[in-house]
């Protein structure tokens, strides 16, 4: 009996969606280049609903860059860069759909690809102060007169469309935002005589705002310059260092659980499994904070990691599936002085003997080449 061939382009959409839902999201940018139909399927919210039903959600990396010649910032996401290989099966349709569907293809390296965003109709500029919850990246907008928007914008990383939350109850002059227990906390950073509106909280599920009790007059400071979420608590740093404990609904002065002689305004780091990892600017290495010994320790095992730059603004760290990912800028030497490379490294973490943490470099690559005038704004992890 003669074997019949399946004409892949004309399979029903439902079947394609079920196939795509089982493919890593790292390949979706490649698949979207196959045809307009694939581009539509990959951008379909139905695809992500199927992924959720299958339990096939995964963490994805997004980076936000500003190009001096463009009025708006641009988003990029990490994907796999593929290479074609000789086709060992001459009966296979020679049209190249994607590396994950082609037998014996070779996958090499990683790259950042531009994300086409949609329906951002507001004239606001989006600040560097951003956080991620599930598949959404939340950010505060800046109006044309320099004032902060009363709404929080968020990008749905499934469809790459922008949306707005309801207006905050009290306008903020210099807000900081953090996520804790799935809720968004907006903290006023300036000296505001009306301390009753010092902090508000948004529940993304119900889209409702509520006030959070303010710290008492005997412990609160004049300003807040940085914040950190650790072990289910919200830490605020300024002329006074405070911690909010939502389970107890109370404020305290920060104790010895936070690193001594640590300047959080220079913090370039991430929290993974309640351990703080940071960029050690003095020796340009990745460090972690030993809360028992109350000291910073070097993350060992990274001897092959390329040298990191001295400038904090050129380095970013994020938590990623129990690991850390380091992103940094580096000049293109010799060939093109007007360009620079963006490097990325994924590092697995292993605790040994209870007192040491070792890192294992799973991959390290140049993921993007950009003009020197380009600036790195934000680096985050979302779940889709």
From TrEMBL:
Domain F-box per the UniProt entry, residue ranges: 11-51
Gene3D superfamilies: Kelch-type beta propeller (2.120.10.80)
Classification via Pfam families: F-box (PF00646), Kelch_FKB95 (PF25210)
Membrane-spanning segments: none
Stored InterPro entries: F-box/kelch-repeat_ARATH, F-box_dom, Kelch-typ_b-propeller, Kelch_FKB95
Domain of life where this protein originates: Eukaryota
Protein name (Swiss-Prot/TrEMBL): F-box/kelch-repeat protein At4g11750
Native source species: Camelina sativa (False flax)
Lineage: Eukaryota, Viridiplantae, Streptophyta, Embryophyta, Tracheophyta
Gene encoding the protein: LOC104707471
């Amino acid at each position: 009996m003669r074997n019949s061939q399946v004409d892949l382009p004309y399979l029903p959409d439902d079947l394609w969606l079920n196939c795509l839902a089982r493919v890593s999201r790292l390949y979706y940018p490649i698949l979207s280049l196959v045809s307009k139909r694939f581009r539509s399927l990959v951008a379909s919210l139905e695809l992500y609903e199927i992924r959720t039903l299958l339990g096939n959600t995964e963490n994805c990396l997004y980076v936000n860059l500003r190009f001096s010649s463009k009025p708006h910032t641009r988003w990029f996401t990490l994907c796999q860069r593929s290479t074609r290989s000789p086709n060992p099966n001459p009966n296979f349709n020679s049209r190249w759909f994607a590396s994950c569907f082609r037998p014996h293809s070779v996958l090499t390296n990683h790259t950042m690809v531009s994300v086409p965003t949609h329906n951002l109709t507001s004239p606001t500029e989006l600040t560097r102060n951003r956080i991620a919850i599930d598949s959404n990246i939340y950010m505060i907008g800046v109006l044309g007169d320099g004032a902060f928007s009363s709404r929080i914008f968020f990008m749905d990383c499934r469809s790459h469309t922008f949306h707005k939350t309801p207006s905050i109850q009290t306008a903020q002059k210099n807000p900081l935002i953090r996520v804790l227990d799935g809720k968004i906390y907006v903290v006023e950073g300036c000296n505001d005589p009306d301390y009753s509106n010092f902090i508000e909280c948004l529940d993304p599920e119900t889209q409702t705002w509520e006030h959070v009790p303010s710290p008492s007059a005997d412990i609160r400071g004049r300003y807040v310059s940085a914040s950190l979420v650790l072990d289910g608590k919200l830490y605020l740093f300024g002329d006074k260092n405070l911690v909010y404990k939502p389970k107890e609904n109370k404020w305290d002065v920060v104790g010895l659980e936070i690193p001594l002689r640590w300047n959080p305004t220079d913090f370039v780091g991430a929290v993974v499994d309640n351990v703080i990892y940071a960029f050690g600017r003095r020796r340009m290495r990745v460090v972690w904070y030993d809360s028992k010994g109350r000291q910073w320790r070097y993350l060992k095992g990274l001897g092959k990691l390329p040298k990191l730059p001295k400038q904090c603004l050129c380095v970013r760290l994020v938590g990623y599936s129990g690991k850390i990912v380091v992103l940094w800028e580096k000049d293109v030497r010799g060939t093109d002085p007007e360009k620079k490379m963006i490097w990325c490294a994924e590092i697995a973490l292993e605790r040994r003997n209870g007192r040491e943490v070792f890192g294992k470099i799973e991959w390290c690559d140049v993921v993007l080449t950009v003009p020197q005038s380009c600036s790195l704004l934000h680096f985050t992890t979302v779940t889709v």
